[in-house]
Design goal:
75 residues, alpha+beta, Ubiquitin-like (UB roll)
């Protein structure tokens, strides 16, 4: 657990979040992404590993010509 850098009130707890990424006209929504979530304000923090996985999957979607895609995150 770490103190939230946004609200400075809450501490983070492991949880799952929905992450939306946009690049140009492409919108990607990832559901069930593991993150540390502030119990006070809901701000979330992704690990470096999870961020790398999201960005790699986003690149695949952009290359495939997706405009809007909703994906379940799988580690």
């Amino acid at each position: 657990m770490i103190k939230c850098v946004i609200c400075r009130q809450g501490e983070t707890q492991p949880g799952k979040v929905t992450v939306t990424l946009q690049r140009g006209d492409v919108t990607l929504v990832f559901k069930g992404v593991p993150a540390d979530v502030c119990e006070n304000c809901g701000e979330y923090y992704l690990s470096e590993r999870v961020t790398e996985q999201l960005l790699a999957r986003a690149e695949e979607a952009v290359r495939s010509g997706a405009e809007v895609e909703i994906l379940r995150f799988a580690a």
